Amino acid sequence: MLLASYKSTRPGLQGLFNRIIRLRLRGQYSHSEIVFEPGDGVGHLMPDGMAEPDKDGSLWCASSVAAEALPTFSPRRAGKTGGVRFKRVVLDPSRWDVVKINLDPMATAHWFRVHEGEMYDWQLILGFMSWVIPQKDQRWTCSEACASALGMAKDDAWRFDPANLPAAAIVWA
């Protein structure tokens, strides 16, 4: 299992948010994904029943996203924008940095299956700008979902962002 951290800039409005997040966090990453590899023993929990790379070399990743539509196979809110989801991603080294995580892939994949389709935590994002805006329960940012899935309690998972999660994941592993 891997932690993938997005270091590139997407086109359009999403690219503007990539830049704003990196600037606000004073880091090089704007998004986090958990990556499930062949041999993790979690293929049966993946949407297509396998953890092998597809013909394009993409692997199953899990995270929470703000501006993407949830896939049609999502058990909750399929087609709605934003939330916890599985997605196949090609981990192009020019766009992603990856860190090996030696934690329990089964527990991590199970966490994402249980929470799949839950909403994105816009309040936490706004709370980065103003401390008076509280986070919402059962809503997740990308790094908050990854930290929680890796075993961090919800009360502490919100403390992690895409800039500091890779360093924390190395310490946990």
Short summary:
The protein has six helices and seven strands, in the order βαββββαβαβααα. By secondary structure, the protein is α+β, with helices and mostly antiparallel strands.
Topology of this structure?
Blueprint lengths: L1 E5 L5 H14 L5 E5 L23 E11 L11 E9 L6 E5 L4 H11 L3 E2 L1 H8 L9 E2 L1 H8 L4 H4 L7 H8 L1
Parallel strand pairs: 6-7
Antiparallel strand pairs: 1-2, 1-5, 2-3, 3-4
Structure description:
This protein is of the alpha+beta class and 173 residues long. It has one domain (2-172). 31% of the residues lie in helices and 23% in strands. The protein has helices spanning 12-25, 105-115, 122-129, 142-149, 154-157, 165-172, and strands spanning 2-6, 31-35, 59-69, 81-89, 96-100, 119-120, 139-140. A five-stranded antiparallel β-sheet has the order 4-3-2-1-5. Strand 6, helix 3 and strand 7 form a beta-alpha-beta unit. Helix 2 crosses helix 4 (142-149). The longest helix is centred in the first third of the chain and has 14 residues, at 12-25. It is globular, with a radius of gyration of 15 Å. The N and C termini lie close together (11 Å). The model has no long low-confidence stretch (mean pLDDT 89).
